[in-house]
Amino acid sequence: MKNIFHITQSEKWEHAKILGSYRTDSLETEGFIHCSEVNQVVNSANKFFFNQQGLVLLFIDAGKVKAEVRYEEAEIGELFPHIYGELNIDAVFGVSDFEPGEDGLFNLPPEVVDLE
């Protein structure tokens, strides 16, 4: 499996590290945690997190995720990775501050560009 990425609030990630696993509201309401592939990160960030501060981008080794990872079609016909269950934090191999620019839009952090 390849790397996947998840955008979350810094405080939620810090709390997850204490608990040993990460949960999100979408896991309760939709049954999965939304993730993106590298080419989907910026579009997802700009669509759902425009101009939001205090975010981090989690770098996840999909092969180490203990919960089921499924690639499912979104409204636009593109496949997005979803984690069905809690994310074990040992599957996260990197975390980057993820802040928008002055225009409120996001760009890939240099650490992600280096993974390509």
> Main beta sheet, described?
3 strands, antiparallel
CATH class: Alpha Beta
Number of strands: 8
* Count of structural domains: 1
CATH architecture designation: Alpha-Beta Barrel
In short:
The protein is an alpha+beta fold and 116 residues long. The chain contains four helices and eight strands.
Overview of the molecule:
This protein is of the alpha+beta class. The protein has helices at 10-19, 25-29, 41-48, 110-115, and strands spanning 3-9, 21-22, 33-34, 55-61, 68-73, 79-84, 87-88, 92-97. The protein has a three-stranded antiparallel β-sheet. It has a three-stranded antiparallel β-sheet with strand order 3-6-5. The longest helix is centred in the first third of the chain and has 10 residues, at 10-19. It starts with a strand and ends with a helix. The model has no long low-confidence stretch (mean pLDDT 91).
Give the secondary structure arrangement, pairings included.
Blueprint: E1 3-9, H1 10-19, E2 21-22, H2 25-29, E3 33-34, H3 41-48, E4 55-61, E5 68-73, E6 79-84, E7 87-88, E8 92-97, H4 110-115
Antiparallel strand pairs: 1-4, 2-7, 3-6, 4-8, 5-6
Q: Which structural traits does this protein have?
A:
3-stranded antiparallel β-sheet, ADP-ribosylation fold, single chain, DUF952 domain-containing protein, 4 helices, DUF952, 116 residues, alpha+beta
